[in-house]
Structure formats: C-alpha cells, structure tokens
Amino acid sequence: SIEALKKSSYEDNRWMEEPLFHTYCWVEVPMQMQGYRMYYRASLTIVQKNIFFMNVAILVQMLFLGVPTILLFVNVLSSIAMQKRMVNLLYQDPVTGGNNWCHFLEQSRKILRRFGNTNHTYAVVNLHMLRFQDFCACNGSKEGDELLKKIDGYLKVNMDRGETFARFSKADFGLLLRCRSVEQCEKRLKKLLVELTGVKRDQMISFSAGIYLLHPAANRKERRRRQIDLDQVYHFASAARSSMRGREGEYIKLFDQQILQEQLWRRKVEERMEAALAAGEFRLYLQPKFHPVTEKIVGAEALVRWISPEDGMIPPNRFIPIFEENGFITRLDDYMISEVAKLQSEWKIHGQKQVPVSVNVSRVNFVKEDLAEHICRLVDGYGAAHAGIELELTESAFFGNKELLQKILKELKMCGFSISMDDFGAGYSSRNSLKDLPIDVLKLDMDFFRGDGSKERGEIVVKETIRLAKSLHMKIVAEGIEKKEQVEFLAEQGCDMIQGYYFAKPLPVSEFNERAERDG
Ligand code: C2E
Ligand code: CA
Ligand code: CA
Fold first, then answer.
1. Ligand 3 centre and the CA of 382: distance in Å?
2. pLDDT for 220-250, tens place per residue?
3. Who lines ligand 1 at CB under 6 A?
C-alpha cells in the first residue's frame, strides 16, 4: 500500500543527515500488462551535502564557461583600446595633437569621392606661416609648438562640413575647402589669413596661402576616370605660394600653368647646375663703366651668363634667384671671383689696360665668418692685386647679423678690396647702412632714372644723394643709364662713373678687351 511504501522509504533514509528539503513525487513504473499502469511514489530529499555538490557543480561550470567569457571580453576591450591608440598614432599630429597628413589624405579622398559628383569646386590650400623659424629663434621651440596648436585649434572651428585640414610640416598646413566660386574661396581665405594673425595677440605673425582648384568633373565618364593625386595637388598649391616669395603685399596665389612651368624650370636648373659649372657653361661678361666727361672706360662690372648647349644664353634673373634659395650661389660667386682674378692677372701679364672690376657677392655669403680669408685665397690663387677687385653687395645683405657683416667688411677692406653698395635707393634703410658700414662706392639704382615722376624732383633726389656720398668720401656709379641727357646731368653733378646701355651692354671678355684697346 501507499502508506507502507511511504513508511519504508522514510525509514530507508533515516540513517542520512537532517534533510534541508523533503518532498514526494510520483514515478510511473513501466509494465507489460495492458490496461494497467503502476506508479511509484518516490521520496525526494535534499540534504546539506547535495547543496555543496550543486555549488561545486555551478562553480565548475562557471570556471569552464565564465572565465573564458570574461577573458574574451577583456581581450575585446583591450584590442579596441589598442586599435584606438594605433589610429591615434597613425592619424594624430605629434605637435598639434590634431590631424596629421595621413589623415588629411585619407579624409580628403573620402570627401572628394563622396562629393565628387556635386557642383562644388574644392580648393586644396597650402597655408604657410611666414618667418616661423625666426619666431622659434626668438621665443623658443616650445612657444613655436604652442603657436602651431593655436593655429590648429583655430582651423578646427573654422572648417565646415565636408572639409578637412592637417599640418603638413613645420608651419605649413594643408586645407581642403569647399567653395562656391573662386572669388568666394579667395575672400574666405583672406578672412582666414587676417584672423590667424590675431592668434598670437602679443606678437605680429603673418601667413600666406597657395590654392589649387579642383573643379567638378564635367560628366560621369570623366568622374569615373579622374584620379586625383592629392600629394601632387598640394605640391602645386605650395608652388603657387612659393611663387609669391619676396613679393611684398601679396598673400594669396592661385596655381596656374605659368607656375608649373617655373617649377619645371627650377627642377631643370637644379639638375644641371653642378655639371654646367664643371663644364664652364657659366661665362664671365663685363659691362664697362665710363667716365662721364672723358667717356673712357674706367671700370667694369662682372656679370654672369649661362651659355647652355640646350637653351642658349640664359640671363641671370632666370637662375640667380634659384641659386640664392638653394645655396649654389656661393659656388657661382666663388667661380666669378676666380674668373675676375684670373683675368686681372692675364691683363697684367699681357700688358693690357687694367681697370678695377666689381663682382656681385650674394648676401648668402655673408654668414661665413671666414669670408674675407676665403676671398683672399681665391684671388691670391691667380696672383691678382686685391685693389683691382671691388665687391658689390646689395642692401638685402644688411638685414642679417649686422655685427658679423661689419666684421667681414672690415676684414675685406683690410685685405685691400673695395666695397660697393649695389642698387642704392631701391630699399628703405640705405641711409642707416651708410652710417654704419665701411662702404667705398655707391651704385645708384636704375629706378632713380626711371618712372613717371617729375623729372625735376628726380634730379633733386639724385643731386642730393651724390652730395651725401661725396661728403662721406664715397665714389658714385650711376647704373642703367640709357640717355645722353642723363649722362650730361650726372657729369654736372660730379658722378664718378656711368654704367648703362647708352655706352655699352655687358660684353664677352674678348669684346670688352677689344673695346678697351680701342679706348686707349
Ligand atoms: P645688377 O648687379 O644690378 O646688374 C645690373 C643689371 O642691369 C645687369 O643685368 C645689366 O645687364 C643691367 N643693365 C645695365 N645697364 C642697363 C641699362 O642701361 N638698362 C637696363 N635696362 N639694364 C641695364 P643682368 O646682367 O641681367 O643681371 C641681373 C642681376 O643678376 C644683377 O643685377 C645681379 O644682381 C645678378 N647677377 C648677375 N651676375 C651675377 C653674379 O655673378 N653673381 C651674383 N650674385 N649675382 C649676379
Ligand atoms: Ca651689381
Ligand atoms: Ca645694380
């Protein structure tokens, strides 16, 4: 019976410890007899030991399932953090903390791909802070970095949707701007440049920008075919910006084909300059200087001409500015000084007429402490007299280290060379330079004899300048003289020498020698 079953099962479990939980349940017993079912009432008891084993089982399960899950979770989190760090490393500028160039290229490509089919024109801009090196020299590189951060911060708040920017190098930033028209783009950039000057309140800073415009593709086919090399485009924008170098008052320049031609020319010049110097393609030309009254040759200026087998005669203004930038000018100046020294000693040996020859010495040379010693060595190599050589320097040489310049000029004078100030009057601090530097000869700039101003006023300025030079015991050379009346006026004022097309253009040495011979 059920009661008996109950009793016996309870009694069976009596030897076990005190149950925590006790219940019964009915369990069907499988039978072969048809129409009958047999049930067994089972007793279910949970004791302390069961709980312990259950806990152990759960713990083991957690160990096997939970720990790997946690580990997996931690792994995912750390790899996300690592990825983020990697992205930062890859896309973050270490100086500004903003975007770096890699980011700019990637972002720009995305933007152009996304917006390429709209009517927008994009401007790739090279934004450049002028004289950043000087700023760092005066304030330290830490301040320089702070300034770059500020520029980055300013640009960040001034970019619109679908635009991007990043620092390229030093104080150069690349911008991708969306513009409605060229005029709107220039106007916006002008505003940007003006506002950027205010980033550093206590100091004057200025910027310039070059622009390369990316017009929308005309049709689907062109759009699909178009491959934009952003690095190259940025390079064009910076070429446009560099083309303004030295031009006062210009701050924004749009890239055009002429700039590309100049770039190609620059590359060609730089590729060939070394070989050209070695092959003697740079030739010495002499422009005679005449006495205004006797009209005889009393001196000459050495001017270089590049006679290239490929391009014919190349005038100096096509390569001297390039050499001044890349430093090759010092090599060329050395060569010209040597050529003049060689010529002076040849004149002496052959008993020809000897006149002082002036040589242009670029301002780039005036950073060398031992410049005087160096020039002496070059001249002495040919045994030429120092008195026959005059060194012409332009006012721009006076803007560097004044003490060093004074020291070099003093040494050069002690060596017996005379010093001439070229293009006097073309700059603005000429008078001060006259006061401080040991100058022997003043060359009046051509501009004194050009221009639309009143003739009388021009004559008064020349007259007063000659008077000033005379009272400082300097000799005066007037340059760029093309008219007889100019020669007559200068003769009246006591000008010492005249150089200009009125008398002669720069001549090859052989022609100069012939002319000097005829001159007697
Ligand atoms: P610069 O030293 O002022 O030379 C005078 C320039 O004026 C020369 O141009 C000369 O040909 C030109 N000139 C002379 N008389 C007249 C005239 O009556 N009318 C006009 N319109 N021009 C006249 P060039 O030879 O083309 O030289 C240009 C500049 O290139 C020179 O200006 C000088 O700054 C630089 N240069 C030339 N040769 C050398 C050199 O060997 N070394 C360096 N560092 N610079 C040089
Ligand atoms: Ca000169
Ligand atoms: Ca000159």
1. 27
2. 777 777 788 999 999 999 999 988 876 767 7
3. 287, 303-304, 315-317, 320, 329, 332-333, 336, 360, 362, 422-423, 480-482, 499-501, 506
What are the φ and ψ backbone dihedral angles of 514, each rounded to 5 degrees? -60, -45
Better-predicted residue by pLDDT, 474 or 90: 474
Q: Which residues contact 254 (CB under 8 A, 6 or more apart)?
A: 182, 186, 210, 211, 212, 213, 240
Q: Name the pTM for this structure.
A: 0.74
Q: Which ligand is closest to the CA of 420, given by its number?
A: 2
Residue 414 Cα to ligand 2 midpoint, Å, equals 22
Beta bridge mates, 329: none
Which ligand places an atom closest to the C-alpha of 500?
1
Q: Under DSSP, is residue 215 helix (H, G, I), strand (E, B) or coil?
A: coil
At 62, list the tokens. 């957690």
Place of tokens 């830490």: 142
Residue that the structure tokens 């622009």 belong to: 211
- Out of 283, 286, 301, 303, give the residue to mutate to test ligand 1, the one with the largest number of ligand atoms within 8 Å of its CB: 303
Q: Which residue do the tokens 């205010």 mark?
A: 198
Share of the chain above pLDDT 70, in %: 93
Structure tokens at 315: 């005038």
Angle value at C-alpha 189, between 147 and 159, nearest 5 degrees? 70
Q: Residue 417 has what DSSP assignment?
A: -
Task: Tell me, in angstroms, the distance from the centre of ligand 1 to residue 31's CA.
Answer: 126
User: Are the CB atoms for 422 and 433 separated by under 8 Å?
Assistant: no
Centre of ligand 2 from the C-alpha of residue 31, in Å? 128
Q: Say if residue 264's pLDDT is above 80.
A: yes
| Residue to mutate (ligand 1; options 273, 282, 320, 481; most atoms within 8 A of CB) | 320
Q: Which amino acid is at 220?
A: R
Residue with tokens 């064009």: 236
How many angstroms does the Cα of residue 262 sit away from the middle of ligand 3? Answer: 24
pLDDT: which is higher, 502 or 70? 502
Please give the DSSP secondary-structure letter assigned to residue 509: H
d(CA 110, CA 103): 11
Long-range contacts (CB closer than 8 Å, 24 or more residues apart) made by 455-460: 459/489
Q: Per-residue pLDDT for 479 more than 70?
A: yes
Q: Are 64 and 132 in contact (CB under 8 A)?
A: no
Per the CB < 8 A criterion, the answer to whether 393 and 420 are in contact is yes
